[in-house]
Amino acid sequence: MSVRVVTPLGALVFAAVFGVAAIAHAQTATPATKAPAAGQALPAAGPILVFETEKGTFEIETYPAEAPKTVAHIVGLVNKRFYNGQRVHRVVPNFVIQLGDPQSRDMTKKEAWGTGGSGTQIGVAEFSKTLKHAPGMVSMAHAGDPTKADSQFFVVIGPASHLDRKHQIFGKVISGMDVVRKIAVGDRIVKATVKGTT
């Protein structure tokens, strides 16, 4: 089943299915990290995820207080090197970039990109009452049932308020947003790590 994001007009946009992981030790964010995103106050940061891509590196701070099971799931997948070698499988200009399908390692399976995952669903919809889908926010994709989100996630790069309380936000890009905006479909994730680990 394909993963979708539903727009206000009812058009369907395939979104990434995201993986679940075990939480690493929480890290405190610097004052610069905690600058509000589009006017919203951000919660305390947890583990920081580092994604090295062919276009450069971007970092995501996670919010375990808002989405504990989601953060644990994604951090666990990163620690298992699940994302290494995958490719970004969807880019919607001025909306989102999406990744997290292990099939994207295989160029011969390009038609199926966006339909795969880790095989383990999060099992709960952890919608934030305060976080909004503004540029830089990182959120889970699903095929209509947020409890079945797995390993695919998206980074918001444009207006996306219609996704609020439909997709669980679990983090925010705190460095490398310029890299995120340069990423194209097929760009490879060289390595993903939890900051402070190898």
Describe the structure.
By secondary structure, the protein is mainly beta. It has one domain (4-27, 42-194): Cyclophilin. 9% of the residues lie in helices and 24% in strands. It has an 8-stranded antiparallel sheet with strand order 5-6-8-7-9-4-3-10. The longest helix is centred in the middle third of the chain and has 12 residues, at 68-79. The chain is globular, with a radius of gyration of 15 Å.
Describe the structure concisely for a colleague:
The protein is mainly β and 198 residues long.
Keywords:
198 residues, single chain, 10 strands, mainly beta, Cyclophilin, eight-stranded antiparallel beta sheet, two-stranded antiparallel sheet
How does the overall form come out from the CA principal axes? globular
**CATH C-level label:** Mainly Beta
Supply the CATH architecture: Beta Barrel
Class inferred from helices and paired strands: mainly beta
Q: CATH superfamily, called what?
A: Cyclophilin-like
Low-confidence stretches: 4-36
CATH topology group:
Cyclophilin
Residue-averaged pLDDT: 85
Share in helix: under 10%
